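Example for tutorial group B:
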């Protein structure tokens, strides 16, 4: 029983929940910041809120976006490893 408790505590420490614990690092050079409202205006689809929330790991309402031919790629603004 004690071993199980220790393993669970260690797992929790390695996998913090989404939210303020994720750093805001901005976007890499080839991406631009885009706010939730701006993105929803471009893609007004059902399920938008759930899809946005699944990408917005730091829950600040901002993602990084890049338009390429045939693809509008989005990542969270926690992904710039240069900061
Ligand atoms: Ca974000």
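The residue assignment follows.
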């Amino acid at each position: 029983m004690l071993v199980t408790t220790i393993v669970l505590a260690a797992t929790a420490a390695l996998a913090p929940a989404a939210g303020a614990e994720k750093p805001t690092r901005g976007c890499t050079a080839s991406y631009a910041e885009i706010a939730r409202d701006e993105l929803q205006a471009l893609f007004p689809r059902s399920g938008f809120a759930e899809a946005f929330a699944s990408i917005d790991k730091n829950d600040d309402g901002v993602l990084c976006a890049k338009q390429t031919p045939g693809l509008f790629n989005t990542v969270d603004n926690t992904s710039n490893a240069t900061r």
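The CA atoms of residues 6 and 18 lie 22 Å apart. Compare this with the pattern of hydrophobic and polar residues in the output above.
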